Amino acid sequence: MSRAEVAAVPAAFVPVAGDLRRRRRWALWSAYFFLGLFCFFFLAPPIYMLVTSLKTSQEIAALEGSPWLIREPTLANYTALLGSPTFLNFFKNSFMVAIIVVSVTMVISTLAAFSLARMRFLGSTALATGVFLTYLIPETLLFIPMFQIFTWLRDVTGIEFINRWWILCIVYPTLTVPFCTWILIGYFSSIPKELDEAAIVDGASTMQILFKVFLPVALPGLIAATIFAFTVSWAQFLYPLAFTTSIDQLVLPVGIVTNLIKGDVFNWGQIMAGALLTAAPPVLIYAFLMDYYIAGLTAGATKG
Amino acid sequence: MAQAAMGGAYGERVVARGGSLARRRAWIAFFLCLPLILLVLALVIYPAFYSLHLATLNKSMTRFVGLANFTFLFKRETFWMVVEQSVIFAVSAVIFKALIGFVLAHLVHRLPDKGQRKWRGMLLVPWVIPPAMSTLVWWWMYEPSYSALNWLLESVGLEAVPWLGDPYWARFSVILVNVWYGAPFFMIMYLAALKSVPAELYEAADIDGANAFQKLIYVTLPMLRNIIAITVLFSLIVTFANFDIVRILTAGGPRDMTHVFATWAFKLGIESNDIPLGACVSLFMFPILGGAAIFILRDVHRRSRELAGVAG
Question: Does domain A85-302 sit in CATH 2.60.40.2250?
Answer without folding.
Answer: no
